[in-house]
Design brief:
The protein starts with 9 loop residues before the first strand and ends in a 16-residue tail after the last strand. The chain is built from no helices and four strands. With about 70 residues, it is mainly beta. The structure holds copper (II) ion. The site of copper (II) ion has 5 residues, from loops.
Length: about 70
């Protein structure tokens, strides 16, 4: 899910075209979508790019002993 905290609309699309989050107006949030990971860009601002690594949350290695 993306939330647009900017003052202008953005439209996030996965580079492979698998998911289009649609145009998000300022302050709007997209629907929650499942993505397999990869790069994305903003179709309205092609220089805006990013990456989704597909990892939901980091998990400590078993037995690492670091803990919290
Ligand atoms: Cu944009």
């Amino acid at each position: 899910m993306f939330t647009n905290t900017d003052r202008v609309p953005h439209r996030i699309v996965m580079d492979d075209g698998s998911v289009d989050f649609g145009t998000l107006q300022a302050g709007a949030s997209s629907d929650a979508r499942t993505v397999s990971g990869g790069n994305y860009h903003c179709t309205l601002h092609p220089s805006m790019v990013g990456n989704v690594n597909g990892t939901v949350a980091p998990t400590p290695a078993p037995g690492s002993g670091g803990g919290y």
